[in-house]
Structure prediction request, 306 residues.
Amino acid sequence: MASSSLLVLCLSASPSKFRGVIWLRSGKWGARIAYKYKAYWLGTYDIEQEAAMAYDRAAIKLQRSDTPLNFPMSNYSVEETKFLGRHSNEAVLAMIKDKSYRSKYANFVSNQALLRHLESSNNFAFQQPGVGVTYQMLFRKELTQTDVTHIKGFHIPKDHAIDYFPPLANSRDGNNNSSIELTFFDKHYRPWTFRYSYWKSTQTFVFTKGWRHFLKMNGLNTRDSVVFYKCEMSGNMFYMIDMQRNCIENCGVRLSVAEQELGKRKRSEEVEEEIAAADRTSNGVMLFGVEISNGGPNHKRRIADE
Prediction:
């Protein structure tokens, strides 16, 4: 029904001076684009120029760099082309259509500026705490089997989610967002972006999209820990994440093997020392609590063989 209504609106639409833009009987402007013989609807807009920009962004992502646009290419920054390059065609079209493109792009620009500031100042909190950066540890969590293997992602303790992260819809004091993206920087200046969501059915807060990639790239496993920080630098608030690996079991295994090898070597040296002492005395020698008389070279060889 919705597609047929849209078709009626488009058929009754008036032309626009911009590519990919049509006027609808509802009084709004629609944007659309064709790519590989398929038409994509980019949403409706109150202002004609906004619809034209929606078309341009889709065209930059889907088509060649020399594709005709409604506005000069200089209107779209290098940062924006980098942002477009980070997402798939489907993701970009979805962001344009649901009007989340601007907020996500603004968040990307903010994170990039903060990253450059951190790199230039060279005083990241984990390296030189207290120098230019103030930070507060929010919470630490040991990774469970569910956090590592479950397709739904990382479960955040409810109290910590409510106290430290932005509110979500259907949660206590929630807003209209059912999920948002949160970016965390690690000690290597790398940004990690997670989809932060609240599941009303189970009343749980989770990191979904982006979490499994984070685990894979950092080689994290069950019983490793992640630590979350809230930081501030030059008036900018941002989050940081650190990793603490659980090496007790692995280190214990390596230590046990090393101790066994050391014990074997020590016992071997003790046997050699006892045999050498037997060569120097004619009254015999005590070996492992047993007195052994000096019976000549053949006898010593038998002892060594035993």
User: Anything to note?
Assistant: The first helix runs from residue 2 to 11. Confidence is low (pLDDT under 50) at residues 1-12, 123-130, 249-255, 296-304. The CA atoms of residues 18 and 70 lie 6 Å apart. The two ends are 92 Å apart (CA to CA).
